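Good morning N.,

You mentioned wanting to compare the apo and holo forms, so I went ahead and generated the holo version with heme C. This is what I fed in:
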Amino acid sequence: MIARLVLLALIACPATAWAVETDWPMEPMSPNLEDAPSLQRGFKLYANYCLGCHSLRFQRYERTADDLGIPHDVAVDELIFTGQKIGELMTTAMDPESAKAWFGAPPPDLTMVSRVRGPEWIYNYLKTFYLDESRPFGVNNKVFENVGMPHALIDLQGVARDACPPGAEDCHQLAIDSGSGLLTAEQYDQAVQDLVNFLHYVGEPTRQARERLGIYVLGFLAFLGIFTYLLNREYWKDVH
Ligand code: HEC
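and this is what came out, ligand included:
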């Protein structure tokens, strides 16, 4: 917990500097931690498409599988590609120095990204990669200009292009080359929703338990309140 807080403080400081305003009209997105199938799909997508570069170094496979209702044997067979044991932290084998040389910036750990950037930002980020031949990986991003990350989900989404006429002001449009992705637009939106849901869970794995506990505590206080009131009435009944 303390390690998480320290990390959050460390990440939160430069975050103000990162929070470059984007004029992209952000699509609203709210995570839903009650949706277990979505969280499970998000975990799978993360393990397949993100974990190779981005560690979740405060998160263990085992805890994640337990929280999301995934049996351990399924987690070992389908979600651990690094040869690690289920009790280990979700680190990546990538060497940070080489990563920095390849991408310009090392892929950051994403344990806290949902708390620093917010789920809506990540959702829009993953939906706004577009073709830009001038960039090293041939793609740019509408909410993170000149990002060093390749479009990890391009196979699923397909090739997106800026669809605004040259010189057009106040135009914000991307169009996908038809048939270039494995998923339809709706399926891709769902996949990104699942991924962001998962990252939101990772940012605070105890959130659900905490909220549930809060409800019990309030229920208990209400219950106690009724008794106190009745007792009070009982005490004062004969005084007058
Ligand atoms: C090939 C390596 C690679 C893969 C795969 C990859 N990323 Fe990245 N990602 C990067 C790099 C490098 C950066 C840093 C970019 C920069 O600072 O310019 C980054 C940055 C990010 C950021 C912004 C972090 C921040 O706050 O600055 C998010 C969010 C992110 N990645 C999410 C994802 C998700 C989700 C996936 C899986 C779908 C993914 N990435 C797959 C390399 C990768």
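The chain has a mean pLDDT of 91.

Happy to go through it together on a call whenever suits you.

Best,
F.
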